[in-house]
Amino acid sequence: MIDRYVQFFKALADEKRQEILQMLEEHDMNVTEICEEFENVTQPTISHHLQILRNCGVIDSRKQGKLIYYYIRRGCISDNCREFFGRFKIEVKGE
Fold it and tell me: I need a surface site. Which of 18, 30, 54, 58 has the fewest CB within 10 A?
C-alpha cells in the first residue's frame, strides 16, 4: 500500500507532469497537442511523463481513429489523497 502512495505522489511532484495535468484539466489531448505547449521538450520525454501518470492511475487514454487522447481520472486523485491523509486522521473533502 505504501508503495502505491509513493508512486502516486512522486508522479504528482514533477513540475512538467503538473503542467500536463493542468492542460488535461481543460480538455482531453493527444501527445502531439501536449508537445506543442512545451518548448525544448521532446515527444519521447512527454510520452515518458504520460506513462508515469498513467502507471499510477492519474490519467488514462482512449483511442480515436489513429490518435490516442489522454484524460484525467479525477476519482483516482481524490481517492488516493483521501485514503493517504485518512491514515493520519486528516480529512480531505471530495468534489
Answer: 18
